[in-house]
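precorrin-2 dehydrogenase
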Amino acid sequence: MEQLNLYPVAIKVQGRRCLVVGGGNVAERKVAGLQECGAEVVLVSPELTPELERLVASGRVIHLNREFEEGDLEGVHLAICATDNKALNREIARLCENRRIPVNVVDNPELSTFFVPSVIRRGPLCIGITTGGNSPLLARRLREELEEHIGPEFGELTLFLGKLRQIIQERFSDPEKRRKIWEKVLPPGFFAHFQKEKMNSWRKQVEECISSPWE
Protein backbone atom coordinates (compact mmCIF):
# COMPACT_ATOMS: atom_id res chain seq x y z
CA MET A 1 0.00 0.00 0.00
CA GLU A 2 1.26 3.47 -0.89
CA GLN A 3 2.48 5.45 2.10
CA LEU A 4 0.09 8.30 2.88
CA ASN A 5 0.55 11.42 4.95
CA LEU A 6 -2.90 11.83 6.48
CA TYR A 7 -4.36 15.20 7.48
CA PRO A 8 -5.78 14.66 10.99
CA VAL A 9 -9.19 16.18 11.69
CA ALA A 10 -11.98 15.77 14.24
CA ILE A 11 -15.43 15.65 12.61
CA LYS A 12 -18.61 16.95 14.25
CA VAL A 13 -21.36 14.35 13.84
CA GLN A 14 -23.71 15.60 16.58
CA GLY A 15 -27.24 15.38 15.18
CA ARG A 16 -25.98 14.39 11.72
CA ARG A 17 -27.05 11.30 9.80
CA CYS A 18 -24.31 8.67 9.57
CA LEU A 19 -24.71 5.39 7.70
CA VAL A 20 -23.37 2.04 8.84
CA VAL A 21 -23.76 -0.90 6.44
CA GLY A 22 -23.45 -4.28 8.15
CA GLY A 23 -24.84 -5.94 11.24
CA GLY A 24 -21.95 -7.86 12.79
CA ASN A 25 -19.57 -7.21 15.67
CA VAL A 26 -17.52 -4.64 13.74
CA ALA A 27 -20.66 -2.71 12.80
CA GLU A 28 -21.68 -2.84 16.46
CA ARG A 29 -18.44 -1.10 17.49
CA LYS A 30 -18.81 1.52 14.76
CA VAL A 31 -22.40 2.27 15.80
CA ALA A 32 -21.32 2.63 19.43
CA GLY A 33 -18.57 5.09 18.48
CA LEU A 34 -20.94 7.23 16.42
CA GLN A 35 -23.58 7.24 19.12
CA GLU A 36 -21.02 8.32 21.68
CA CYS A 37 -20.55 11.46 19.57
CA GLY A 38 -24.28 12.13 19.22
CA ALA A 39 -24.75 11.02 15.62
CA GLU A 40 -28.07 9.97 14.13
CA VAL A 41 -27.18 6.43 13.09
CA VAL A 42 -28.83 4.63 10.18
CA LEU A 43 -28.02 0.93 10.11
CA VAL A 44 -28.57 -1.16 6.98
CA SER A 45 -28.49 -4.96 7.34
CA PRO A 46 -30.93 -7.88 7.24
CA GLU A 47 -29.10 -9.49 10.17
CA LEU A 48 -27.99 -7.92 13.48
CA THR A 49 -26.05 -8.89 16.57
CA PRO A 50 -28.10 -9.12 19.80
CA GLU A 51 -26.67 -5.77 20.97
CA LEU A 52 -27.64 -4.04 17.73
CA GLU A 53 -31.11 -5.57 17.98
CA ARG A 54 -31.38 -4.10 21.46
CA LEU A 55 -30.36 -0.65 20.23
CA VAL A 56 -32.87 -0.83 17.39
CA ALA A 57 -35.64 -1.94 19.77
CA SER A 58 -34.85 1.00 22.07
CA GLY A 59 -35.29 3.41 19.16
CA ARG A 60 -31.72 4.68 19.38
CA VAL A 61 -30.83 3.44 15.88
CA ILE A 62 -32.75 3.71 12.61
CA HIS A 63 -32.72 0.22 11.11
CA LEU A 64 -33.33 -0.62 7.46
CA ASN A 65 -33.93 -4.37 7.53
CA ARG A 66 -32.67 -5.19 4.03
CA GLU A 67 -29.62 -5.03 1.79
CA PHE A 68 -28.03 -1.69 0.94
CA GLU A 69 -29.62 0.53 -1.72
CA GLU A 70 -28.11 3.62 -3.33
CA GLY A 71 -30.88 5.82 -1.92
CA ASP A 72 -29.61 5.05 1.59
CA LEU A 73 -26.84 7.61 0.99
CA GLU A 74 -29.32 10.48 0.69
CA GLY A 75 -28.56 13.13 3.33
CA VAL A 76 -25.70 11.12 4.84
CA HIS A 77 -22.81 12.99 6.48
CA LEU A 78 -20.43 10.01 6.40
CA ALA A 79 -20.61 6.27 5.75
CA ILE A 80 -18.98 3.16 7.19
CA CYS A 81 -18.96 -0.18 5.37
CA ALA A 82 -18.65 -3.08 7.78
CA THR A 83 -19.67 -6.04 5.64
CA ASP A 84 -17.73 -9.08 4.45
CA ASN A 85 -19.04 -8.56 0.89
CA LYS A 86 -16.06 -7.10 -1.00
CA ALA A 87 -18.05 -6.30 -4.13
CA LEU A 88 -20.69 -4.45 -2.09
CA ASN A 89 -18.04 -2.53 -0.16
CA ARG A 90 -16.40 -1.45 -3.40
CA GLU A 91 -19.71 -0.32 -4.87
CA ILE A 92 -20.61 1.70 -1.76
CA ALA A 93 -17.17 3.32 -1.79
CA ARG A 94 -17.65 4.28 -5.45
CA LEU A 95 -21.08 5.75 -4.81
CA CYS A 96 -19.77 7.70 -1.83
CA GLU A 97 -16.91 9.10 -3.88
CA ASN A 98 -19.35 10.23 -6.58
CA ARG A 99 -21.45 12.00 -3.94
CA ARG A 100 -18.37 13.33 -2.08
CA ILE A 101 -19.39 11.50 1.10
CA PRO A 102 -16.50 10.47 3.37
CA VAL A 103 -16.41 6.68 3.59
CA ASN A 104 -14.55 4.15 5.71
CA VAL A 105 -14.42 0.59 4.43
CA VAL A 106 -13.38 -1.61 7.33
CA ASP A 107 -10.20 -3.58 6.61
CA ASN A 108 -9.75 -1.94 3.18
CA PRO A 109 -7.65 1.25 3.41
CA GLU A 110 -7.50 1.64 -0.38
CA LEU A 111 -11.27 2.12 -0.60
CA SER A 112 -11.46 4.39 2.45
CA THR A 113 -11.33 8.18 2.38
CA PHE A 114 -11.04 8.40 6.16
CA PHE A 115 -9.88 6.15 8.98
CA VAL A 116 -11.41 5.73 12.42
CA PRO A 117 -8.63 6.07 15.02
CA SER A 118 -8.21 4.12 18.20
CA VAL A 119 -9.48 6.62 20.76
CA ILE A 120 -8.85 7.61 24.37
CA ARG A 121 -11.68 9.73 25.82
CA ARG A 122 -11.43 11.69 29.04
CA GLY A 123 -14.42 14.01 29.06
CA PRO A 124 -13.92 16.53 26.23
CA LEU A 125 -10.31 15.38 25.81
CA CYS A 126 -10.05 13.05 22.84
CA ILE A 127 -6.81 11.45 21.71
CA GLY A 128 -6.90 9.53 18.42
CA ILE A 129 -4.24 7.11 17.16
CA THR A 130 -4.18 5.89 13.58
CA THR A 131 -1.70 3.96 11.48
CA GLY A 132 -3.40 4.93 8.22
CA GLY A 133 -4.90 1.46 7.96
CA ASN A 134 -1.52 -0.29 8.16
CA SER A 135 -1.94 -1.88 11.57
CA PRO A 136 -5.12 -1.33 13.62
CA LEU A 137 -3.67 -3.62 16.30
CA LEU A 138 -0.64 -1.36 16.74
CA ALA A 139 -2.98 1.61 17.22
CA ARG A 140 -4.89 -0.36 19.82
CA ARG A 141 -1.75 -1.40 21.71
CA LEU A 142 -0.54 2.21 21.78
CA ARG A 143 -3.93 3.31 23.09
CA GLU A 144 -3.81 0.69 25.85
CA GLU A 145 -0.35 1.89 26.85
CA LEU A 146 -1.35 5.57 26.95
CA GLU A 147 -4.54 4.84 28.91
CA GLU A 148 -2.34 3.76 31.83
CA HIS A 149 -0.91 7.29 32.04
CA ILE A 150 -3.89 9.47 31.08
CA GLY A 151 -6.50 9.10 33.81
CA PRO A 152 -9.97 10.65 34.36
CA GLU A 153 -8.35 13.69 36.00
CA PHE A 154 -7.30 14.87 32.54
CA GLY A 155 -10.97 15.25 31.61
CA GLU A 156 -11.50 17.47 34.66
CA LEU A 157 -8.37 19.42 33.72
CA THR A 158 -9.64 19.96 30.18
CA LEU A 159 -13.00 21.31 31.38
CA PHE A 160 -11.27 23.68 33.80
CA LEU A 161 -8.95 24.97 31.08
CA GLY A 162 -11.95 25.59 28.82
CA LYS A 163 -13.53 27.85 31.47
CA LEU A 164 -10.17 29.48 32.10
CA ARG A 165 -9.78 30.21 28.39
CA GLN A 166 -13.01 32.21 28.39
CA ILE A 167 -11.90 34.20 31.45
CA ILE A 168 -8.51 35.00 29.94
CA GLN A 169 -10.05 36.05 26.61
CA GLU A 170 -12.49 38.37 28.38
CA ARG A 171 -9.90 39.85 30.74
CA PHE A 172 -6.91 40.25 28.41
CA SER A 173 -7.20 41.64 24.89
CA ASP A 174 -3.47 41.53 24.12
CA PRO A 175 -2.55 38.19 22.42
CA GLU A 176 1.01 38.41 23.76
CA LYS A 177 -0.24 38.71 27.35
CA ARG A 178 -2.51 35.72 26.79
CA ARG A 179 0.41 33.70 25.49
CA LYS A 180 2.54 34.55 28.55
CA ILE A 181 -0.28 33.62 30.91
CA TRP A 182 -0.80 30.27 29.22
CA GLU A 183 2.91 29.53 29.33
CA LYS A 184 2.82 30.14 33.08
CA VAL A 185 -0.35 28.09 33.57
CA LEU A 186 0.97 25.15 31.50
CA PRO A 187 4.76 25.27 31.75
CA PRO A 188 7.05 22.67 30.11
CA GLY A 189 7.05 19.45 32.13
CA PHE A 190 3.64 20.22 33.66
CA PHE A 191 2.09 16.84 32.87
CA ALA A 192 4.90 14.87 34.48
CA HIS A 193 3.88 16.35 37.83
CA PHE A 194 0.13 16.74 37.36
CA GLN A 195 -1.90 14.58 39.73
CA LYS A 196 -5.57 14.66 40.64
CA GLU A 197 -4.90 15.18 44.34
CA LYS A 198 -2.97 18.37 43.51
CA MET A 199 -5.77 19.84 41.40
CA ASN A 200 -7.08 22.25 44.04
CA SER A 201 -3.68 23.71 44.87
CA TRP A 202 -2.93 24.06 41.15
CA ARG A 203 -6.21 25.88 40.59
CA LYS A 204 -5.30 28.32 43.36
CA GLN A 205 -1.97 29.02 41.68
CA VAL A 206 -3.77 29.60 38.36
CA GLU A 207 -6.23 32.04 39.99
CA GLU A 208 -3.34 33.96 41.49
CA CYS A 209 -1.60 33.94 38.12
CA ILE A 210 -4.48 35.54 36.20
CA SER A 211 -5.21 37.98 39.04
CA SER A 212 -1.66 39.36 39.08
CA PRO A 213 -0.86 42.48 37.03
CA TRP A 214 0.35 41.82 33.49
CA GLU A 215 1.26 45.31 32.40
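thats it. Helices lie at 25-36, 50-57, 86-99, 136-147, 153-171, 175-185, 190-193, 199-211. The first strand starts at residue 17 and ends at 21. bye
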